[in-house]
Design brief:
The chain is mainly beta. The chain contains four helices and 18 strands.
Length: 255
């Protein structure tokens, strides 16, 4: 598909969901690619390496408007390039080592990868920090450019390409390290969706799961099929986005 605004070609329909598309060879009328439910699930596991730092593996599952197909398909390093961005944005300082694909369709992608994370620099107390970020291609990265969580009020709707659901799970093998701080479990549900932070602490590892669901009962544009989240619902949508981006919900401290 050709994007006349950016002047570029893109594989697949994922990033064009909710936009009007014209296929000259098949019909004479432009039509909208209907918005459907999005899925973005990322699981990353880390273990201490004998050589120092951390080694890890990850699985990425995407579908609907959040499908990674348009970013990952290609013959010029696109697969490794995108999965490398996912690894680096999920965990700052992570480097992709290897990758593979289990499913590659324009409606969904399943990919696996391995990574390496250098030992973070310890603070004055000898503690190291591991922080979960905003993975590339996820909900936060896919929001319209005019969505600013620092703004308490909006005068215009937020346009979403259908309901969105994102889960980011980080599993950290403790080895001989001890936990100094873990995020507190949290749950928030309102008219715009829900946010859940779950923490599971085992004898030798800890699991943090952040889940963000945006499914506001908002108006759907009959032409573009875009969900319009009206300004009066912005406080609820903003509350979920603030929880998702809160530093306190992302940090693990070890010693």
């Amino acid at each position: 598909l050709y994007d006349p605004v950016r002047g570029e070609m893109r594989l697949g329909r994922d990033r064009h969901t909710g936009r009007t598309v014209w296929i000259p060879s098949k019909d004479g009328q432009p039509h909208a690619i209907r918005a459907g439910s999005s899925r973005y699930e990322l699981v990353v596991s880390l273990d201490s390496s004998e050589e120092g730092g951390w080694t890890g593996s990850g699985v990425l599952v995407t579908g609907g408007p959040l499908s990674a197909y348009g970013d990952i398909a290609g013959v010029d390093g696109e697969t490794g390039g995108h999965l490398g961005r996912v690894a680096r944005t999920a965990l700052e300082g992570a480097d992709l080592e290897d990758h593979s694909l289990a499913l590659l369709k324009d409606t969904g992608v399943v990919a696996g990868f391995t990574l390496r994370l250098d030992e973070p620099e310890a603070d004055d107390s000898g503690r190291i920090l591991i922080e979960m970020g905003d993975p590339a291609g996820g909900v936060m990265a896919s929001l319209p450019s005019d969505v600013h969580v620092y703004s308490e009020h909006r005068d215009s709707p937020v346009r979403l390409a259908g309901p969105m659901e994102q889960t980011f799970t980080l599993v950290v093998g403790l080895g001989d390290r001890e936990i100094v701080r873990l995020p507190d479990e949290r749950s928030l549900e309102n008219t715009a969706g829900s946010f859940t932070l779950a923490v599971e602490e085992g004898t030798d590892r800890v699991t943090i799961t952040r889940t963000l669901i945006l499914n506001p009962p908002a108006l759907v544009d009959r032409v573009e099929q875009i969900i319009h989240v009206e300004p009066d619902m912005w406080p609820d949508l903003r509350a979920l986005l603030l929880e998702e981006s809160d530093h306190r919900n992302r940090v693990i401290l070890l010693e």
